[in-house]
Amino acid sequence: MEESAYLGGVIVGLGYLAAGARLAWLSASTRKAPERLLSATFVLWGLAYAWQQMPLILENEWLLVPLYTAGRVLTDAGTIGSAFFLRLVFRPKSTIAMGVVAGICGGLVLGIAGSGWMGDWGGMDPLRNPWWWLEWSAVVVSVGWIGLEGFHHYGMSKRRRRLGLCGALDCNRYLLWGLVGAVWMIYELAYAAQVLEFQLIGAFSTSLDRIAAVLESAPILFIWLIFCPPPAYQRWIERSDPHPNAAEG
Amino acid sequence: METSLFDFAAEKLERHTGLSQLEARGTLRIALKAAGLDPKNLSRQELRVVFEKLMPGELDQRGVKAGQDVCVAVLRDLESAPIAGDESAASSPDDVFRRLAKA
After folding, report:
1. pTM, 2 dp
2. Fewest C-beta atoms under 10 Å: which of A19, A29, B64, B97?
3. Is B35–A34 a contact, with Cβ atoms under 8 angstroms apart?
4. What is the rounded CA–CA span in Å between residue B65 and residue B50?
């Protein structure tokens, strides 16, 4: 791993914390569950990044396992929040969706508990620890769900757009949400490759490290464009809209 | 059990066209799919647009005569529909994402 590898993690963590704080501020006035769930998710992910970068910043190996474990727990807690958000916003009446949420929660909780039982609290021993794969699979399902909902609703919203039932920014948000899930999915594959590589050769290769850093950073950019789009970006989306007379919701 | 906007509109469509219940519900589902709408999460405004812009063509395709008049009649019924409230008014994904982006 490169000397300054933690910098990317710190920036991504701060990005999540800022997005979470922004949504927490919104939820204080609206008191609605979706913003509460998503703000909790982003804050937990931001804190997880902070905990996991700490041993690298402090160059303290003794802190590695405890802080990695804490980061892992926070990441999984955030992932549970995101699964409840998906169910609440996209499939509120679906029992199948509730089953998927239960599966994600079960996979994450059992994954960590099983890892602890195997003595792999930090989650760095996937070759010996089958529970690591259970936890990883639960995360893959959850980020895959984000991508599927995003792209599915992007397709639907394009049809609504033609009839003037939603705005260009509404469509774009779904596209970005789909990209968030898709990039996270690829990141999870890269992450698994990275952990396996570390276990096999005892080091992180620079190339895989850089790929993972890019895949890790891209979603935070998309999240900011969804929830805090700069005026110039909004104007660009509206200008490039093929149905400019349709109403913005 | 409370009648949904979908059930109400499908029943009116059946009544005004002479289509069977299955045909009327199926036709409405096809029109909603073409409009990118979820039958379980509809607002009056969305149904209005579907009946104004898409349903006449769907009825024409199925050999229903005076499809435009049928849609006007269903829209008139829709105005007085005894539906508790627009289910999608504050809970559709569009609304949630819009709200989250306005922080």
Report:
1. 0.88
2. A29
3. no
4. 18
